[in-house]
Amino acid sequence: MLFNSYIFLFAFLPVLLIVYYGLLRTIPARNGWLTVMSYLFYGWWNPLFCLLMLASTASDYVIGKQLYRTESAWGRKVLITLTVMINLSVLGFFKYYNFVVANLNELFVGLHLPMQAPILEIVLPIGISFYIFESLSYTIDIYRREVKPAKNLIDFFCFISLFPHLVAGPIMRYVDLDRQLKGRTHSEGKFALGIVFFTVGMVKKLVLADTVAPVADALFNQSSAASVIDAWAGVLAYTMQIYFDFSAYSDMAVGLGLMLGFEIIQNFNSPYQSVSVQDFWRRWHISLSSWLRDYLYLPLGGNRKGPRRTYVNLILVMLLGGLWHGASWTFVVWGLYHGVLQAIERWMGPRHPLKQLPVWGQKVATFGLVMVGWVFFRATSFGAAGRVLTNMVGLTHGKEIVPRGALGPLTIAILVLCLVISTSTRNLWQRPIRLDLRTGLACSVALVVCIFLMLTKTNSPFLYFQF
User: Fold this and answer.
1) Which of 37, 53, 311, 439 lies at 20 to 30 Å from 320 by C-alpha?
2) pTM beyond 0.90, yes or no
3) Distance from C-alpha of 248 to C-alpha of 458, rounded to nearest angstrom
4) What are the residue ranges of helices labelled H in 260-405?
5) What's the CA gap between 423 and 213, in Å, rounded?
6) Distance between CA atoms of 304 and 385, rounded to whole angstroms?
7) Which residues are catalytic?
8) Helices 47-69 and 73-110: angle between axes, nearest 10 degrees
């Protein structure tokens, strides 16, 4: 089920809220209702996905309880190893089995070995990377004695399945929601603020991201060379699309959480205003960046084992972060690219060329480096990525490939607006939001416009659903 769909806006959400506020009074009852509705929300695509999430959640709930009760170091290591293996095996099978098998088969062919492993028709469950990481953080934090296990099954199931952040984040940790699951405040002000966040997310998705998306698709979905202008327009369009699409989901998740009394963490902090690649990763997909830091980078030694080990750790963590996004070598290269850039920044320190520029120059240069990275992220192959990059520097004589309809005056205006908003303005978290009549009217008009756009366009899934 999509946030930007009629079934969600005019059926699911009203029923959820009417029962939540009209019939239920206690937090346990409301948590139970949220869990049921969250499974309905998730199972709308494929009910079988619910069974997988149900089994994964139950497994970590049981192991988490036992892990907390176990005193022996050996027993605790066995349990944490077991839960890590279960979670990564589930994620690995559904997300990486065919990728690994396909590469093995190519290796067998290259070595002239008469072996071929079977390729399976595996449907990737939506949001599996997000809820597996959330569940993993729960048991790891119990192992570290940083949190206590959930007191009851409903609270833990509600934590994992809570629909606002279920399929595309932010990646929440149990420590973020523990107290809120036991007791949270509901108020008109909180609900109104939730509507503001949700509305801003709708506008980002339907007005901004979906408008520039055809320009990016026109570049990346064709195989012939493009003109320099079209190449830059397409890459810039994707740069804007992925930010406004993903941050839209995060804003809508925060908004829906506030309507239900939950405070969901910030996932973006104006990433295209970063002054370095390291700064970019402190601002982009914050919940994933902090997860990788706390559960991979620091356990690997962080920066505590000397400069060389630090550089290796940075590169390895970013490489794995790229692979988390998808089973493709282009994602691996994207992660490696960002890891190397961060390692170089850390190695050179104040001697880095970026540091010699004024602040605005650092922002422009960082934005350019991030744009180059998005080419690998969006391209379906190295050949496609290479073609786009060579088109961008004018090494090929390409033809115009972006249709005039896709890059008309309105689209150009929206693309420029996206650029200005993302690079020059404060985000929603940094603004004082006045919950007055003017804000209410603005949200009402914006929602009407978004609903009209839903009438005239085919609903498009959020980009991060595929991860």
Assistant:
1) 53
2) yes
3) 18
4) 277-283, 286-292, 307-325, 329-348, 359-378, 382-392
5) 19
6) 36
7) 325
8) 140
